[in-house]
Amino acid sequence: MPLYEYEICNGDCKACGGRFTLHRPLTAAELTQCPACRKPVRKLISAFFTPKTYRPFSIGQANDAGFTILKKESKGEYSVHKPKRNAPGT
Ligand SMILES: [Zn+2]
Fold first, then answer.
1. Domain boundaries along the sequence of the chain
2. Which residues surround ligand 1, an ion (CB under 5 A)?
C-alpha cells in the first residue's frame, strides 16, 4: 500500500502537527481534509512513490503486456523489435 504525505494548506493542526503521512490504497478517494481537524490538506509529492511516475520496464515485459517496441535502426528508420525466442520446429 503506497504511503502518501499530506500537509495542511493553511495554519497548523494540533492533532497532526500540520503534516502527516497515511497509508492509502490506490483505489481510495483523494484525501482533501485532515481526518483529525477537517482542515484542507494537499498531497505532497513523495520521493518514494508518485502514482504518475513513469516506470520503465523491460522489452520482454512490454511485449507480454501487448506493447509493440520500435527499435531504432540506422537511416532514422524504425523496425518492430521482437524479443528472441526459440521458435518451435527449428
Ligand atoms: Zn489536522
1. 3-44, 56-90
2. 13, 15-16, 34, 36-37
